[in-house]
Specification:
The protein is mainly β. The chain has two domains: about 120 residues; about 100 residues. Helix content is about 0%, strand content about 40%. The chain has no helices and 21 strands. The strands form six sheets. It has a five-stranded antiparallel sheet with strand order 3-10-6-7-8, with no helix packed on it. A five-stranded antiparallel sheet has the order 13-20-16-17-18, with no helix packed on it. Strand 1 and strand 2 form a beta hairpin.
């Protein structure tokens, strides 16, 4: 799933590099990691993700998911045709709202995490914007599903996501998800105790492998692409580094 259609950047006061990145959606679930932050901060907001779709009736939404893949909270994209009135806004509101039609653009999105953007139509432009960050991101896992992703506006690889967990038996994995929430492909985190031998590597291999124990660290992780990391234990450090 190619989540980057182009990147436009500008230099602001030589201190902050800001820009935007556009992606063409599929009809259904789009797994999106915010690859920009609010200027001057180390986190982003839901308002950093916008849609160009004029579909009315609250049919485009964004979902923040829990450790079992359950929806914790849902926000809706509204257009002028939805006729939502907000205090302090002239005319009808365009943007994200909660279930009570209250603006939700300031909902904080932590770096490294991803959300599910559901669009009715394919080829809806999903634009992410803000400040570009290049520092390493560490997410402390919950036991179960952790929706993370590439928080940088450049393509990367799966090898730039690592785990500090020494759990053996292929019990930690990463899943690339499809438009219906289905698993397209799964890779496994192996440690030295799993005794995987790889050509050209001295000792036992540590990293991601496919179902045939072939190294998977060079699998593409597109800019702003979200994935599901499943960990057996909580408190596992999921470290995401930039592809610089």
């Amino acid at each position: 799933m190619a989540l980057i259609a182009g990147l436009a950047m500008a230099q602001v006061q030589s201190a902050n590099t800001v820009g935007f990145s556009d992606a063409a959606s599929i009809s259904g679930y789009n797994w999106v990691a915010l690859d920009f932050t609010t200027i001057g901060q180390n986190s982003g907001t839901l308002g950093g993700i916008v849609l160009d779709d004029s579909v009315t009736g609250y049919e485009n939404n964004v979902q923040i998911l829990g450790t079992r893949g359950n929806t914790l909270v849902m926000y809706y994209w509204v257009t002028e045709d939805d006729e939502v009135e907000v205090d302090g806004v002239d005319g009808y509101y365009v943007g994200w709202v909660d279930g009570s039609d209250e603006p939700a653009g300031d909902v904080v999105l932590a770096r490294g995490n991803s959300v599910l953007v559901s669009t009715k139509n394919a080829n809806t432009t999903i634009r992410r914007s803000g400040e570009v960050q290049t520092n390493v991101v560490t997410v402390s896992s919950a036991s179960g599903y952790n929706f993370v992703g590439n928080p940088y506006p450049i393509n990367s690889t799966l090898g730039h996501i690592t785990l500090d967990d020494s759990v053996t038996g292929y019990e930690n994995n990463v899943q690339y998800l499809g438009p219906k929430g289905n698993t397209l492909v799964m890779y496994y985190w192996v440690t030295e105790d799993d005794e995987v031998e790889v050509d050209g590597v001295d000792g036992y291999y540590v990293g991601w492998v496919d179902g045939g124990d072939e190294p998977a660290g060079d699998v593409t992780l597109a800019a702003g692409e979200g994935v599901l990391v499943s960990t057996k234990g909580s408190g596992t450090a999921i470290t995401i580094s930039p592809n610089l």
